[in-house]
Each structure stands twice: as C-alpha cells, then as structure tokens.
Amino acid sequence: MGTVPNAYYDFVMQYAPYFYVIATKMSQDPPSGQKDVVVEDGSKFQVGYPVEIKDDAHAEWNKVASINGNVLTMENNLQYTYYVAKNGKVEGPNPDFGRGAFPAAFAIDFLYEAYGAKQFESAKTDILNKIVELANFILTQQCTDPNKRAYGGFKNSETGTEYWSIDAGRCIPPLLKAYKLTNTADYLNAAVLAGATFLYNMQHKPSELGVHDKYYGGFARYVTIADAWSQPMNVEDLYDFIGLKMLAETYDTANKTRYETMMSDAVAFLRSGFEDLYLWFDPKPSGDGKWHRVGINETEVYDDPMSFALLGLYTYEGWSLTCQRVYNFIQTIRASAQYPAYHPAICWPGYIDVVTRFPACAYYDAVTSGILWKIRAAHDKSSLAFSMQIIKKYQEEFMFWGPKFEDYSPITEQKAMANVSWLAQLFLNYEEPVTPFTRILRCKGESALLYPIRQAADKVTYSEPLDIKVIVSPTRVDEILIEPGYMVNDYITVYTFAPLRQHDKIRRKGEDYEVLGVQAFDFAGETAYFKANCRRLMGQ
C-alpha cells in the first residue's frame, strides 16, 4: 500500500465533517506562550472551530475558545511565534457551508481503510474514535419521522432542508463500515432505512403521487422536509449501487430481492442517458420528458457526477461496455487552444463540453483522481501513475477545490473535505504499476525530464519538470517529414509509460526535444506504452 501525506490525514481527523476549509490572514504577529491570535476578519470563525495556525516556518493545531472582534482566543497556548511577513494565517472551516453528512461519509470511507493500514497502526484508537464520532453525526442528519417523504434520507447540510437521493447513496457504505468495526446496530439500521425505505420511495413514490407521469426506475433528485419534490432523475445516482449492493449481498440479505430490483430498474432507465453523457432526465408532467446537460447550449457536463456514476456502475457490473464507453470518451478529450495545459491523465475538468470534446473551464476537479483510482488501477495504469506523480508533487495544491491547469493554483481559495478524503484513498491504495513494459523501462530505460506544455499562444511555456523513464532510438527517415533547417539526427523516437502530449518538451542528456506526435500502443484493451516522435529544439 502507499503512504498518505500527514497533511491529508490530519485534515480529515481535525476537520471532518466540515465541507470546506478557508484561510484568514493574521494582522499581527502572535507570540508563543499565549492564546490570542489577531486576524483580518474574525467573522470567519466560530467558537469551537478546529483551526491550524501556520506560517512558512511552523504550524500547529488548536481550537477557538472565544472571539472578540478580530481577536481569536485559543484553548491552548501557542507553541511558536508566527509572523505576518511569513504568510501567517489561520485555517478553519468555512462558516458559509458548515457541516454535512456527505463530507462525514467520505471521511469515514478513507478512515475505514486507514484503520487497517500499517502506516496508521499506532493511531488505530484515534481513527476508530473519529469514525464513531462521524457515524454518530450522520445519524443526526437522518430524517426519522415516518410521516415525512424524506423518512430515512439525509439532509444536504446541517442547516439544509433537502434530502437528496445521492446523499443516501453516499452515506450507506460508511455507515455499514462503521457497523462492521463497532457492531453498533444503530449504524446498520440507519443504512437499511436509507436503502430499503428512503431510496425505494425516491424511486417509486414520484409515479404514485403524480410527480412523475409514470414509473421510470430512476430516483427523484430530492424531497424536502416539507414534502416538496425535485422531480429530475440524476445519472449520478448510479453511485447509490455501491451501498445497495453491500446491503443486498451482506448486510440486509432479507431484502436482497428488493435491492436487486431497485438496481435493475434504475440501470435499465439511466444507462442510455449515461452512455450519451447526459446529467439528468426531467420527467413530465412538470418537466419536458428529455435528457439534459448544462451550459447555454446544453453541451457540458460536470465531471464529478459522471465519475461517481461511473464508479457506481463499475462496482455493480464491472468493466462493462457502458463503463468503457463513458470512461474512454471523457478520457480522450484533449487540451484545446484555450486550455493547452489540460491533461486528462491527471484529472478531469470541472466542466466538460462533450459535444466539441474540449474542457469547458480552466481547472481540474481534483476529487475525480480519487474517485477513479480503482478503475485506473485496473484499466488505465499509465494515467494512474501519471496522476499520482503530479498529485504527489503538488499535494498541497490538490487539497483545494479546483486546481488550475496551468500551475495548480486554486480557482477557489478553499480546501475541500471531499477532495482530501478521496485523494487520501488514492495515496493509501497506490502501487506502482507493474507491466511487461515497465519492467523493461526499469531494466533498460534511461532517465529524462518531461516538461508538460503550459501555454502555447504568444510564447511557449512549460510546467515544472517531471522525472520519467524512456527508451530512445534514432528516428528513421521514412518515419518523419524532415523540416527545413533540420537533419535526420535532430529527431529521436521515444518510448515511455508516461502519457506524453504533442508540444510537451523532453530533456534527454542535456538536449531539449519537442514532442511532435504521440501514438498509444494498446494490449488487451489497455494502453501498454506510448511512442513519440520528437524534434530537437534549436536555440534551447
């Protein structure tokens, strides 16, 4: 198994079940040995908030005991002196979002795996206590009033009034994992209530009540505590299959037939929309009876619903034709003139134009790298290895929601519990791919530097270099069209496991080469290696 960065583990242990974490700058230098920290905006904090006090030299965890304007008084004395000039800041939960069931759920998913990992052997008691804390919190978010349509569902946030089908799908697996570790019946009962009652009702009640014009098999998006319905049916609810499958096969076998029928009906309806890369269906009588995407011309999709749906369907039916079609279609969407730095092997963009087949925003939705790790480990090992290399190098940046293509700086200055929890699973489960070609690379390959293209407009710029292994051979004259001013020995052919792109730069033995074209070679349905023709960069 891999190694989880301490920052990721600490983030989950300290901040779950909060959705997001933001930083507020210090306005004075707080000395060590006392409890007061003066920040630029004290309204961003609440009493009881866990916080990380930090600058470029030091960091420590604490908790807010009281607030007086912009003065935060901590529970414990500061261990270090912090300096505004060294980027002194206090990180804490974003009060605009607060806490929620699904960040708690994703945190448990990671902590459950961490509990059995050698890396965290000495922290098992702390991890178990945190899992219990989060599972108990999830229970407080469940509707337990049998007279409500939301009965058995989970609030979309601690102060929310909407009970989404997808949040039930997110909460069932971690509750069952918590039950497995603790044998606490309340966790099992809550998961069964969410699956056999709430999700069943979200699938069946809309047609019975006239919210849907007929029974489709999909799940209504959400119902409010006041019994108001949001009738669209999201493909993302294919993710619900993970929990329903766990219930059917292990934890509630008495209702196995019900769960299997629910999944069978749902996939029969949602499959066509998913394969055609739609996000939801809007049924009559309130809707138009059509599938929909987002964007002005409805050509765009969000990447995370597609990723969650893909993982759910993959868990349900394996590497089916539907899973292959959706994954391969999105994975082969390449960089554009507007966004030349985009690389699908790292992660998918927050918005994807599935008609023009280009990214429709300037940032990665970092959580996707974590959601897809199981699929990539089994079916796209080169992308898995490349994404791990980037995320490990820029692990702080990928804690934020929306690292930009160009430099991985955040599109929004807030760290996300979903990102950190899912990427922590990627770190924990990562193993270097071992294939016939990687064995050859380790034995016969030479070291080179890959400079991914960043900009290609007025001036060509590159990202920081990455270490890669390559096998290099001279390019034959019949393989290329020699350009004016160049000779055949200015060209080389490179074989590598890293997914190169046109216009990337490779530095080999001190010489720089531009990648002219890349050809992927597949074996048994998976890319085995890449072959690239490269030309020497003159004047470099």
Primary descriptors:
globular, 23 strands, alpha+beta, single chain, 35% helix, six-stranded antiparallel beta barrel, 14 helices, seven-stranded antiparallel sheet, 540 residues
Tell me what you see in this structure.
The protein starts with 5 loop residues before the first helix and ends with a strand. Helix 2 packs parallel to helix 4 and helix 11 crosses helix 12. With 540 residues, it is an alpha+beta fold. Strands 2-5-4-3-6-1-15 form a seven-stranded antiparallel β-sheet. Helix content is 35%, strand content 22%. The longest helix is centred in the middle third of the chain and has 25 residues. It is built from 14 helices and 23 strands. The radius of gyration is 25 Å and the shape is globular.
**Total of helices:** 14
Strand order of the largest sheet: 2-5-4-3-6-1-15
Identify low-pLDDT runs: none
Tell me about the largest β-sheet: 7 strands, antiparallel
List the helices and strands and how they pair.
Blueprint: H1 6-15, E1 20-25, E2 36-38, E3 50-54, E4 59-68, E5 71-74, E6 89-93, H2 101-115, H3 124-140, E7 162-164, H4 165-182, H5 185-209, E8 220-224, E9 229-234, H6 241-251, H7 256-275, E10 280-282, E11 290-292, E12 300-302, H8 303-317, H9 321-331, E13 351-353, E14 358-359, H10 367-371, H11 373-379, H12 381-393, E15 415-416, H13 417-429, H14 436-444, E16 446-451, E17 453-456, E18 460-462, E19 466-474, E20 491-496, E21 505-508, E22 511-523, E23 526-536
Antiparallel strand pairs: 1-6, 1-15, 2-5, 3-4, 3-6, 4-5, 7-8, 8-9, 9-10, 10-11, 12-13, 13-14, 16-19, 16-21, 17-18, 19-20, 20-23, 21-22, 22-23
Helix pairs in contact: 1-13, 2-3, 2-4, 2-13, 3-4, 4-5, 4-6, 5-6, 5-7, 6-7, 11-12
